[in-house]
Design brief:
about 110 residues, alpha+beta, 3-stranded mixed beta sheet, elongated
Length: about 110
Amino acid sequence: MAERVTQNQVKSKKRVADHGEVFTAQREVNAMLDLVMQETERIDSRFLEPACGNGNFLAEVLRRKLEVIKKRYANSQLEFERYYFHVPHRLQGKKFERCDNSIRTRTI
């Protein structure tokens, strides 16, 4: 089990040594986002992930916000669409890679 978690969190030992790159497992993502649950469920809150990697934090925030919208606006097509298409623009991730001095921006 521990080996499987390590494999999911580490692409290679070299990348960890060179760049400090370690991916956060879904279990930890959920635990951390549960600590700020009110913000993950507030439709107009913004999230910036300064080290987004594969985007698992942003994807989970998006999933949680869209679930709130589905529940809250199920009876109003106009409001549902308004918020459903509004939420992704409030999430942004940055990935800084020292290996090529580039910055990648990922908006989910």
